């Protein structure tokens, strides 16, 4: 019950702030990049333990071995656009070839090739921020539909796996699908008041929600890597 109360508090605090303010006031840590529906988790080795990104009112920077920085020309609570000719990438070499390959995915395939509509013709990208298990999850989507997914705290690989859980459709009417590589052992469904209204034992990756009344609910998902909390809407 304490976890549910904490989760509800996070939602209240988060939605009282504009997304741009939340984006600027946090350091973001990359969990994975998704290119053409294929996920590339952040490397974790002696050279790279995390990949961070920071945003200011008109500036962005992220780094693996090299640093990518750019000036932002247009900014609101869901979109941003880089200023043409004002994006820079340093020219270092990673010592670990795994990290070097990851830069190709992260910088070239996500930030450059998929972002640039032509030479120095930068297309707008969208972003969204949602509470996710007591941290914030930032999803940046480029013009090709590829995504970079960040979190507001640096986490171990096992913790990132717990957060890379997709719930859909949301809102739902009859059936809720849960997409994850983790083993789901049990799911508790709570009303916003904290009242337990449904328990599914030995859950598969779909649950029947057709008998739930319309409204907002919170899922407590027990997995082989620990508990995960998600918000859903039934209509």
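^ structure tokens above, recovered residues below v
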């Amino acid at each position: 019950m304490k976890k549910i109360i904490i989760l509800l508090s996070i939602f209240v605090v988060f939605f009282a702030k504009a997304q741009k303010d939340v984006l600027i006031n946090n350091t973001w840590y990359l969990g994975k990049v998704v290119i053409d529906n294929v996920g590339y988790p952040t490397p974790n080795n002696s050279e790279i333990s995390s990949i961070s990104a920071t945003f200011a009112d008109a500036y962005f920077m992220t780094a693996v071995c090299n640093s990518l920085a750019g000036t932002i020309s247009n900014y609101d609570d869901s979109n941003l656009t880089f200023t043409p000719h004002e994006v820079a990438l340093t020219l270092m070499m990673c010592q670990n070839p795994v990290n070097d390959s990851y830069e190709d995915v992260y910088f070239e395939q996500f930030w450059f090739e998929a972002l640039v509509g032509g030479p120095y013709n930068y297309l707008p990208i969208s972003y969204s921020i949602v509470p996710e298990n007591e941290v914030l999850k930032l999803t940046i989507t480029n013009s090709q539909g590829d995504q970079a997914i960040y979190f507001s705290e640096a986490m171990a690989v096992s913790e990132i796996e717990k957060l890379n859980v997709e719930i859909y459709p949301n809102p739902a009417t009859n059936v809720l699908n849960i997409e994850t590589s983790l083993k789901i052992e049990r799911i508790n469904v709570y009303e916003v008041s904290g009242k337990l209204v449904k328990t599914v034992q030995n859950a598969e990756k779909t649950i029947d929600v057709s008998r739930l009344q319309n409204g907002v609910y919170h899922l407590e998902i027990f997995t082989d890597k620990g508990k995960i909390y998600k918000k859903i809407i039934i209509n």
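The chain has four helices and 16 strands.
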